[in-house]
């Protein structure tokens, strides 16, 4: 038993989900056409996504940066204090006294210590308010925590105090080295006050520690905020699900 061949039936388009059959004829084979409209990301988009992931900074990395700058400021300040000469050598001239100071890196080290302290302060401040893992919180959420507010203000105060203690003797020492000709014949060729650079170095280290404590408290406030937001969203979803079930019933 054999069915008669009717080309007008096979000449019609037969379509299936995602696949289209071309018109059949006795001389052309069966052809399949894909109707999938799925779009794939281009290589440029993939590269940009990868760059964003690489550029994302974690809280651990920021804490390491703050610690590095703070420790460098402390070390340079201590070295500057140890290298500072106690006084210069007076040389009598015609109506003047010329102070000759030994060569020392106190001024350069003092400015470097102040620069690293400033970098530590900027990094510590930014580390508290930038977004991590693509999620950020309003500043008001952080300052709701009393502990965070206290340590944040202490970190700012100690940073300003340390910067003053480092810059004051450094600038004074630079003035003594550059203005070494005195009309006071009884001058003893003094240098910057002893102990200020060392004290500024220790206060700089303290400010670094306070920034790290503030960062830890900010992390706790962020986690509490996100937990509350997730619980709130879960409660809303369960409530809407219950309403839908009641309506369907």
Automatic annotation (TrEMBL):
<protein>
    <recommendedName>
        <fullName>CASP-like protein</fullName>
    </recommendedName>
</protein>
<keyword id="KW-1133">Transmembrane helix</keyword>
<keyword id="KW-0732">Signal</keyword>
<feature type="transmembrane region" description="Helical">
    <location>
        <begin position="196"/>
        <end position="218"/>
    </location>
</feature>
<feature type="transmembrane region" description="Helical">
    <location>
        <begin position="62"/>
        <end position="80"/>
    </location>
</feature>
<dbReference type="InterPro" id="IPR009606">
    <property type="entry name" value="DEAL/Modifying_wall_lignin1/2"/>
</dbReference>
<keyword id="KW-0472">Membrane</keyword>
<comment type="similarity">
    <text>Belongs to the DESIGUAL family.</text>
</comment>
<dbReference type="InterPro" id="IPR052222">
    <property type="entry name" value="DESIGUAL"/>
</dbReference>
<dbReference type="Pfam" id="PF06749">
    <property type="entry name" value="DUF1218"/>
</dbReference>
<feature type="region of interest" description="Disordered">
    <location>
        <begin position="226"/>
        <end position="249"/>
    </location>
</feature>
<feature type="transmembrane region" description="Helical">
    <location>
        <begin position="150"/>
        <end position="171"/>
    </location>
</feature>
<feature type="transmembrane region" description="Helical">
    <location>
        <begin position="108"/>
        <end position="129"/>
    </location>
</feature>
<keyword id="KW-0812">Transmembrane</keyword>
């Amino acid at each position: 038993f054999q069915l008669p061949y009717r080309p007008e039936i096979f000449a019609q388009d037969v379509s299936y989900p995602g696949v289209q059959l071309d018109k059949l004829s006795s001389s052309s084979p069966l052809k399949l056409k894909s109707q999938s409209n799925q779009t794939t990301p281009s290589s440029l988009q993939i590269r940009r996504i990868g760059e964003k992931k690489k550029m994302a900074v974690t809280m651990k990395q920021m804490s390491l940066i703050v610690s590095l700058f703070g420790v460098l400021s402390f070390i340079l300040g201590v070295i500057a204090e140890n290298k500072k000469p106690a006084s210069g050598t007076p040389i009598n001239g015609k109506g003047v006294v010329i102070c000759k100071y030994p060569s020392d890196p106190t001024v350069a080290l003092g400015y470097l210590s102040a620069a690293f302290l400033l970098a530590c302060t900027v990094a510590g401040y930014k580390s508290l308010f930038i977004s991590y893992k693509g999620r950020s919180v309003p500043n008001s959420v952080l300052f709701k925590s009393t502990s965070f507010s206290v340590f944040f203000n202490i970190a700012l105060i100690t940073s300003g105090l340390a910067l003053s203690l480092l810059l004051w003797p450094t600038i004074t020492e630079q003035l003594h080295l550059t203005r070494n000709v005195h009309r006071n014949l009884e001058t003893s060729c003094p240098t910057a006050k002893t102990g200020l650079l060392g004290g500024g170095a220790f206060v700089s280290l303290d400010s670094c520690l306070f920034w790290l404590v503030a960062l830890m408290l900010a992390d706790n406030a962020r986690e509490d905020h996100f937990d509350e937001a997730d619980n709130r969203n879960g409660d809303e979803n369960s409530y809407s699900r219950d309403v839908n079930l009641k309506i369907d019933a």
